[in-house]
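Recall that a protein's primary structure is simply its ordered list of amino acids. Everything else, from secondary elements to tertiary packing, is in principle encoded there. The following example makes that idea concrete.
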Amino acid sequence: MWTVTVCNFLVIAYILSLTTASMETALTFQVPPRKEQCFYEDVQENHEIEMDFQVVDGGDLDIDFQAYDGSLKRIAINRRESYGTHTFTVKESGVYKFCFSNKFSKLTSKTVFMDVYVDDGVYTADNEAEEGASLHAGFTTLHKQVDNIKSQLFKTQVQLQLSKAQRNKDQKIQNSNKIRVDRWSMVQCVFMILMATVQVYLLKQLFKEDKSAKRQARI
């Protein structure tokens, strides 16, 4: 009984001591016209970066994107895109730079959703847990399963966030189209009323001319 309790304690201690340097950042921000916004991420060697962005509001829903590694070498570029997905493997430590440019737009601000996930792929365990050498193989298998579940949950979260951003974008487009249809319908109604008024006026003028002509003929 005591042995089982100790084993359970070691399993729990090992799971709790599993740590990663994984980091996730999700932002929604605005880029004013003729401006550029940049974000920086300090990443260590052998880490992996996964980033997604999507324009959810503003103009034609497009923006320029550029990514730079620690040596300021450009590693990705998108020109006037609505969305983008990039994966980078960090070969040397440094500060990575992600820039969103709206310089081509003179009047319209852009609202952008960005999600950045950094994963080192290296896991460390507490020294006390490592003393249970006989349980190491089982811990490794359990760790892999937990890591796989975590990875799937993260991908699901990203997809949900992108779906939400896409839904917001579609709603913005729908509202914009509705406003355009309402305005055009109003213009058409005003034009039809104006044309009807002109036609009635012209018909009245024709009858007035006929009456005046008959009066002159009688005289």
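The first helix runs from residue 2 to 17. Residues 1-21, 123-129 have pLDDT under 50 and may be disordered.
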